[in-house]
Amino acid sequence: MLSAGNSTPPTFFLTGVPGLEAFHIWVSIPFCCLCTIALLGNSTILYVVITDSSLHEPMYYFLSMLSTTDIGITVSSLPTTLGVLWFNARIISLDACIVQMFFLHGFTLMESSVLLAMAFDRFVAICNPLRYAVILTNSRIIKAGVVIFVRMLIILMPLLLLLKGLSFCGPNMLSHSYCYHPDVIKCSCSSIKVNCICGLVALILTSGIDVPCILLSYVLIIKSILSVASPEERQKAFGTCISHIGAVAIFYIPWVILALVHQFGHKAPPYIHTLMSNLHFLFPPVLNPIIYSVKTKQIRKAFCRLFPNTD
């Protein structure tokens, strides 16, 4: 199954949980539970936003975009991970790898953009509330969604197209149960300098722009909130941002740690790579619906209307 240069289509070998291969069936139980929670939670948020007219506001439109990207991330990694855990189906072709990376990295990049859009939404709502409805119109929100999708294509497509020009001599052992771009290019026996440069540029154009802009928006938000005299109004303003701050933290912190592990953790135990990758791709889809349902009063009320007390 090994490939020599580009003479035969290269194949890759996915990895489950190193050291726990004999217990993959048991490992799949918590994994399936987390995926089920992620899919049900985000699908429910999508449903209540679509069906509840009181949630037809910019904040909840962006929340529905966040739930869509979370569903996409979960579904993108699910087939190969379950294949490895249930059937020990570890072999995957380069083309299948590229398709999976398109969806997995694509939804991840779009989630970063959505979090930035949500930060802008909170900035306008708190710093310029009188013009909120004028600035964030439905047409502009639709345009923002289109820009988020196009931005993802522009950043991601060069990375994936460059993979077709690499030679893979094998054995092409991946560190995860899915295809992850830094993991795949390390298997190449040809120069990956251009790939690494493009990967760095893609990182700068996403988190390198999104994170500073989100931080700047919150600096301005905090400055505006502190200028409010009433403690009650301050608390209310901060309360509208807590859910978004939590979503930003659980998305970016595992992402940064995973990138550092791949870059500098060559001597780290293999299960560290597996743990951090699962934290990165599973935590946001699982926790975001919980955070927003607990911290956002309107979402809680919508859930109560959807699931009324039968007592």
From TrEMBL:
<feature type="transmembrane region" description="Helical">
    <location>
        <begin position="200"/>
        <end position="221"/>
    </location>
</feature>
<feature type="transmembrane region" description="Helical">
    <location>
        <begin position="23"/>
        <end position="49"/>
    </location>
</feature>
<keyword id="KW-0812">Transmembrane</keyword>
<comment type="similarity">
    <text>Belongs to the G-protein coupled receptor 1 family.</text>
</comment>
<keyword id="KW-1003">Cell membrane</keyword>
<keyword id="KW-1133">Transmembrane helix</keyword>
<keyword id="KW-0472">Membrane</keyword>
<feature type="transmembrane region" description="Helical">
    <location>
        <begin position="271"/>
        <end position="291"/>
    </location>
</feature>
<keyword id="KW-0675">Receptor</keyword>
<keyword id="KW-0716">Sensory transduction</keyword>
<dbReference type="InterPro" id="IPR000725">
    <property type="entry name" value="Olfact_rcpt"/>
</dbReference>
<feature type="transmembrane region" description="Helical">
    <location>
        <begin position="98"/>
        <end position="120"/>
    </location>
</feature>
<feature type="domain" description="G-protein coupled receptors family 1 profile">
    <location>
        <begin position="41"/>
        <end position="292"/>
    </location>
</feature>
<feature type="transmembrane region" description="Helical">
    <location>
        <begin position="242"/>
        <end position="265"/>
    </location>
</feature>
<dbReference type="GO" id="GO:0071396">
    <property type="term" value="P:cellular response to lipid"/>
</dbReference>
<dbReference type="InterPro" id="IPR000276">
    <property type="entry name" value="GPCR_Rhodpsn"/>
</dbReference>
<keyword id="KW-0807">Transducer</keyword>
<feature type="transmembrane region" description="Helical">
    <location>
        <begin position="141"/>
        <end position="163"/>
    </location>
</feature>
<keyword id="KW-0297">G-protein coupled receptor</keyword>
<feature type="transmembrane region" description="Helical">
    <location>
        <begin position="61"/>
        <end position="86"/>
    </location>
</feature>
<comment type="function">
    <text>Putative odorant or sperm cell receptor.</text>
</comment>
<dbReference type="GO" id="GO:0004984">
    <property type="term" value="F:olfactory receptor activity"/>
</dbReference>
<dbReference type="InterPro" id="IPR017452">
    <property type="entry name" value="GPCR_Rhodpsn_7TM"/>
</dbReference>
<dbReference type="GO" id="GO:0005886">
    <property type="term" value="C:plasma membrane"/>
</dbReference>
<dbReference type="GO" id="GO:0004930">
    <property type="term" value="F:G protein-coupled receptor activity"/>
</dbReference>
<keyword id="KW-0552">Olfaction</keyword>
<dbReference type="Pfam" id="PF13853">
    <property type="entry name" value="7tm_4"/>
</dbReference>
<dbReference type="InterPro" id="IPR050402">
    <property type="entry name" value="OR51/52/56-like"/>
</dbReference>
<protein>
    <recommendedName>
        <fullName>Olfactory receptor</fullName>
    </recommendedName>
</protein>
